Structure formats: C-alpha cells, structure tokens
Amino acid sequence: MAQHLQDTTTLHNGVNMPWLGLGVFKVEEGAELIQAIKSAIRHGYRSIDTAAIYENETGVGQAIQEALQENSLSREELFVTSKVWTADMGYEETIAAYETSLAKLGLEYLDLYLIHWPVKGKYKESWRALETLYKEGRVKAIGVSNFQIHHLEDVLKDAEIKPMVNQVELHPYLNQQELLDFCKEQGIQLEAWSPLMQGQLFDQPVLKQIAVKHDKSVAQVIVRWDLQRGIITIPKSTKEHRIVENVDVFDFKLSDEDMTLINSLNQDQRVGPDPDHFDF
C-alpha cells in the first residue's frame, strides 16, 4: 500500500510504476499544460500520462524537460506514458506512431506505451508491434487501455508477452470489480482514468459524508479508495491547489465500512465510451 506520492508498484516485468500520476486528457498545448505538469513535478509527482490523440505531446515534452532542469531530476526519475490511437492501429502503423510520439515528446524512450482502444481486428497486430518495441528495449513496459475481460483473453491467447497494465475508466459509479479481479489473477496492473468522474461525484451524498468524517475532500476519498483497492490512479487537474490536494491522501485510511459503502455506489455508469460500442 502506497505511503508516499512517489511510492511505486512493481509490474510483472519488474518495472516500478508510481501509484499516482497526473493525467492531461483534453489539456490543450500551451502555458496551462506546461505549468500544470511543472507544478505537479515540483510537488512530487513522478508519473505523467498523455496520448497521441490528446494532441499535447509536444507541450508535455517541453514541460518535462523544463521540470527536470528546474528540479535537478534525471529522466529516469520520471514515468511517462503515451498511447497509440485507433487510426494508427496495425503492426507497421503502431511502430511509426511510437516514433512520432517519441519525437513530439523529445524523449529517447517511454516508460509505458498503451493501445488506446481495442479496435476489433486490429489490436492484436498492434500488440505484436508493442512486443517488438519492448523486446528491442525501446519501451520499458507495454499495456492496453479500455480493454474488457474478453479483449484481454483474446490478446492472451496469442501474446508472447502479457500486458503489464490495463488503463480503464474507473470510479465509484463504475468500480470495475470483475475486471479488477481478473487483472489481479493475471498479474496485470489496473489503472484508473477519470477516477473523479470528471467532477460529477463531488456532490455525491455518501462520498461527502465519508469525506466530512475524515476531514478530507471527496476527491481525496476517491483517490484513497483506488489505492486501497490496489489500483493506480491519474486524477487530472490544471489548478495547482487541486494538483496538490488530489494526492494528499497518505494521512488517513478508509475503514472497511467506508470501502463497502463506496463499492455499493456502483451503477456501471460511464462518462466515456463503452469499449464494445466505441465509434472508431
């Protein structure tokens, strides 16, 4: 269980990945993006999650370079994730997309590269490409995003290398318990995107009650809930005080009763697309 912002979990290939990171979904290129990342790193974040489709990899790379210099950090102290978009699925296309992401980020390697969505008929070829990149030592870890159990089972039938991470929409209204259990059995680390449900849970009565009890915010309660379930989480914010607040979660613990109450809020409700019905 994480005790500090920079604590890590060990993926099945031995790579250490921070339990907490900053997501930059829908943050446009520009000063706001750069300042958010630099602020996060200054306050102790060591994991940054982006994707080709976010169209902000250049800004992420600039922010990382500036933050490394300003905080006297080495590249190896950061964990950087990106993802191949659906339009670039296929073996050669995925290799090329990786090269493009690296160039935009200005990095020599990624710590984690993910298949963004399970495009039917194409994701297995993209997985072969990720295996090649991994075997060549060009990426530290590989994984998938938005894969349900049947997608994972399909990949595992032919994969030489098991995915290390599965990043999915996960929050109290979509707790993904069955998927979490499957991933734990397979040694695949589950990671939550949109853990705060894009702010839609901040007025949820049960969460507010638990937050008041612990003198914490609803966001902090949700992040703590993720960690206590063994889930990596990447709350997104561009505001410095929120960036700091979201990860101030190491001075309290949710009780078994708290955890049960939060788990009972599940409605299988999504804010993002259903992976089985996504318009690719």
TrEMBL record:
Any Pfam family matching the protein: Aldo_ket_red
Matches recorded under InterPro entries? AKR (IPR020471), AKR5G (IPR044500), Aldo/ket_reductase_CS (IPR018170), NAD(P)_OxRdtase_dom_sf (IPR036812), NADP_OxRdtase_dom (IPR023210)
Keywords in UniProt for this one? NADP, Oxidoreductase
Keyword Protease present in the record's keywords: the answer is no
The family annotation for this protein states: Belongs to the aldo/keto reductase family.
Identify the PANTHER family for this entry: 2,5-DIKETO-D-GLUCONIC ACID REDUCTASE, NADP-DEPENDENT OXIDOREDUCTASE DOMAIN-CONTAINING PROTEIN
Q: What protein is this chain from?
A: Glyoxal reductase
Per the UniProt record, the source organism is Paenibacillus odorifer
